Amino acid sequence: MSSISKSWPEWHSTLSEFRYPRALRSSWQLINTLVPYALLWYLMITTFRNDNPYWITLLLAIPAAAFLVRIFILFHDCTHGSFFRSKRANTFWGYILGILVFTSFEDWRRHHLKHHSTYADLDSRGWGDVWTMTLEEYEQSSKKEQLKYRLYRHPLIIFGLGALYNFLVQHRFASELSGPREKRSLLLTNLLILAVIVIAVQTIGWQTYLAVQLPIIWMAGAAGIWLFYVQHQFEGVYWSRKGDLDQLDAGLKGSSFLDLPVVLRWFSGNIGYHHIHHLNALIPNYSLKKCYESIRELQIDKPLNLKNSWFCAGLKLWDEANQKLVAFPQASSKT
């Protein structure tokens, strides 16, 4: 990420003390996540095939989706090389977890690392984040483009249909950023996912598979997109043009701290401490809370929480003149 010249404060070097993964801790996370997730799948399959009311199956999909969100966080740590010290272990588990979350390890890593190098940069928007127009860009757009952007930013689209489209469709194809290595990884992941689906259809039937998989991936996807949305779309967020970008402000102010209840913090793998993650992406998920509590400069007086974070959905455009996110204007100036 390009930035203006500025020395890092002394406390910044302290972050490196928390970046080393512990194999036993990471292994235990795999066990306490994958085993309950498999058990919930078994219970959902059983209730559906025993002709129990479908709402029972859907009720079980809620905790299953929560575990799938946690699986994605472990996958996310693998892409940063922060889950295990071994690159081979991170790659192996990245591929395995990637099958469960319908995401290619190498391809998503390429896009996500691009996001880390361009977030908070107005001149490099769109890499792994929620596309955001400036107020000026929106007002200078055609009515058709404004309508497309409004639909894209509508909560029912971005958190609803977007969840299924993102994981089931978009993640199946390469992008302009994907190189030969990423394309091979994408092909392998797609083939492995197809193999899992074929085995599932042959053993439990396609109706059962869809009745279980679709609500899980939709709920988990919606929750994941909401988490990602509020990480960089909130009141007081920092964005700047490339030449004026300050890396420290981008980390501390360009990424949010979402203070979640302890249970949701566990399921989301402490991703709410997102400002710390962007200051040092090598810190494992289980060390983020301790890092936050240990360094006073990282502690946020008024963090986002479950109540006030919902207001972030109303922020649609970046007002560059006033340096803040704003809602859609009541009436477009475009005639």
Task: Please provide a written account of the structure.
This protein has helices spanning 23-49, 54-80, 87-100, 105-118, 135-139, 143-152, 155-169, 180-203, 206-232, 247-253, 262-267, 274-279, 288-294, and strands spanning 133-134, 317-319, 324-326. With 335 residues, the protein is an all-alpha fold. It has one domain (10-326). A three-stranded mixed β-sheet has the order 1-2-3.
Features:
335 residues, mainly alpha, 13 helices
Task: Summarize this structure briefly.
The protein is mainly α and 335 residues long.
Shape: globular
Order of strands in the sheet with the most strands?
Answer: 1-2-3
- Low-pLDDT parts are none
Counting structural domains, the number is 1
Strand content: under 5%
Rg over alpha carbons: 21 Å
Give the total of beta strands.
3
Main sheet makeup: 3 strands, mixed
Give the count of helical stretches: 13
Q: What number is the mean pLDDT?
A: 94
Annotate the secondary structure layout.
Blueprint: H1 23-49, H2 54-80, H3 87-100, H4 105-118, E1 133-134, H5 135-139, H6 143-152, H7 155-169, H8 180-203, H9 206-232, H10 247-253, H11 262-267, H12 274-279, H13 288-294, E2 317-319, E3 324-326
Parallel strand pairs: 1-2
Antiparallel strand pairs: 2-3
